[in-house]
């Protein structure tokens, strides 16, 4: 209900800022008004659970297994994302880059092909055709980055 109202008040604000403002307004809302929304939520949740139950009843056993596997994978992906964000907030060092990952950004600026996928395809072909001497420079940079990562990880782990 509140999103269109807040969008009208703050047309240039990002969605995340709008959500923060709506959350602050929610915290300021009296308990009696909150109960109305909570009752609506419970009714919607009950309807959702019934619809989900009907949906699952219509599935074959193989489809049900596939559906549950998909739900499990989404849940695990979300948990991994949350964990990664938490580690980032704790200052965990970024993983070391591979030789190829060092080569791509350097070459991306030089490649003139219009679209990003086209540029990446050109870069990939160029990487495959690099001589071993040319590749060795990037391999050495990757080794140096690995050493940096190992040192930062030791320091970070001691700090934690």
Automatic annotation (TrEMBL):
Signal peptide: none
A Pfam family reported for this protein in Swiss-Prot or TrEMBL: HMG_box_2
Database matches in PROSITE patterns: HMG_BOX_2
Subcellular location: Mitochondrion matrix, Mitochondrion nucleoid
GO terms under cellular component: mitochondrial nucleoid; nucleus
HMG box domain ranges (all copies): 1-56, 93-157
BP GO annotations: regulation of transcription by RNA polymerase II
Keywords: Activator, DNA-binding, Mitochondrion, Mitochondrion nucleoid, Nucleus, Phosphoprotein, Repeat, Transcription, Transcription regulation, Transit peptide
GO molecular function: DNA binding
Residue spans binding DNA: 1-56, 93-157
Subunit details: Monomer; binds DNA as a monomer. Homodimer. Component of the mitochondrial transcription initiation complex, composed at least of TFB2M, TFAM and POLRMT. In this complex TFAM recruits POLRMT to the promoter whereas TFB2M induces structural changes in POLRMT to enable promoter opening and trapping of the DNA non-template strand. Upon metabolic stress, forms a complex composed of FOXO3, SIRT3, TFAM and POLRMT. Interacts with TFB1M and TFB2M. Interacts with CLPX; this enhances DNA-binding.
Function: Binds to the mitochondrial light strand promoter and functions in mitochondrial transcription regulation. Component of the mitochondrial transcription initiation complex, composed at least of TFB2M, TFAM and POLRMT that is required for basal transcription of mitochondrial DNA. In this complex, TFAM recruits POLRMT to a specific promoter whereas TFB2M induces structural changes in POLRMT to enable promoter opening and trapping of the DNA non-template strand. Required for accurate and efficient promoter recognition by the mitochondrial RNA polymerase.
Name the record gives this protein: Transcription factor A, mitochondrial
Organism whose genome encodes this protein: Lemur catta (Ring-tailed lemur)
Gene that produces this protein: tfam
